[in-house]
Amino acid sequence: xxxxxxxxxxxxxxxxxxxxxxxxxxxxxxxxxxxxxxxxxxxxxxxxxxxxxxxxxxxxxxxxxxxxxxxxxxxxxxxxxxxxxxxxxxxxxxxxxxxxxxxxxxxxxxxxxxxxxxxxxxxxxxxxxxxxxxxxxxxxxxxxxxxxxxxxxxxxxxxxxxxxxxxxxxxxxxxxxxxxxxxxxxxxxxxxxxxxxxxxxxxxxxxxxxxxxxxxxxxxxxxxxxxxxxxxxxxxxxxxxxxxxxxxxxxxxxxxxxxxxxxxxxxxxxxxxxxxxxxxxxxxxxxxxxxxxxxxxxxxxxxxxxxxxxxxxxxxxxxxxxxxxxxxxxxxxxxxxxxxxxxxxxxxxxxxxxxxxxxxxxxxxxxxxxxxxxxxxxxxxxxxxxxxxxxxxxxxxxxxxxxxxxxxxxxxxxxxxxxxxxxxxxxxxxxxxxxxxxxxxxxxxxxxxxxxxxxxxxxxxxxxxxxxxx
Length: 470
Description:
By secondary structure, the chain is of the alpha/beta class. The chain has 16 helices and eight strands. Mean pLDDT is about 85; it is low at about 1-5.
């Protein structure tokens, strides 16, 4: 384990050094901005150097105190951002007190410290994002091995085939154990034939393994608990397959879920009380903001639909349809009509990719999500949110609840105009597709937060601007 600890220390030291350089440079640039933009007097070199040194030292010390340089830090990116904010808050307070109480000669322009703090937060957030995402400095890439090579373990092989899917970890291989369903198991990945017994610890040490993923088909009587317990005491992470897939893919593998995992997870109800309290106000504000910029397009769309076939058939340019909302409550969704008036003369049908019921203008407004804009009315009425699982028709919901486990949990939040599932699995036209989308919907329900909502909004704008909608 000494080699592993040495490697982890090198990573931490490289991170401290890199962030020290970033903080010092950004603190210098903050003075440059204050002098040239605000018109402040240029401080002496010694005064500027002292302030840069103070800021750099306090940022590093406070970052260390909040665990940002912990070698085994297992934190979400949102958690890292929170820690960076806390670190800079401590730094701001400490430098402000020192320069206004004990070292008055080091006092800078009033705009300098807030400018430096803001730019440092932005710089460190971006730096941490790219180092974790790309595995720079050896960060964010965990050496791991999977115990199990059967049907459950094969989900990693099937869902994470590309290199881009494995940026966050280095997979050494899969260890087959008794009870695995090898017929439906690993096909093309590396198999490691090693016994998970008392000597397994030596294999972990020799290969610098930092995490073990449990993905065996049969746990009872096959998992050596004492050996895994010993590995955990020595600092190796032990992760269940469901938690691993949730962390790395942003989805919950519904077909592999088991009751005890649900019981011990953090549940599917929001614990963000401030966000819940402000939800309607935030949605209304966003709705008014979007309406301010899109009403001309909405008016033009209504006119085109009317002259395309509305005037001839006497059919409304809008389409109202019953959908299932929060806690299973039904409501009428409003959209621009993109299908022929007789689209459902034979009853409710799943939409298909090249649906011949879609009108000429319908193809265009669907591609750029213009048909969804009238749902702003549902947002103002409190029936929908901006972000959430897309609402489904009650006829289909009844079928899906019967055929897909945990499907009803997606109704724990308000349906939305845009959702995590639409970004990651944009097309759904069958029960199988609904199963795939549910994996992302449940991830959103479980992890809903303001930061995740902002991420979805930003990526949805990309979808609209570049016509990636379906």
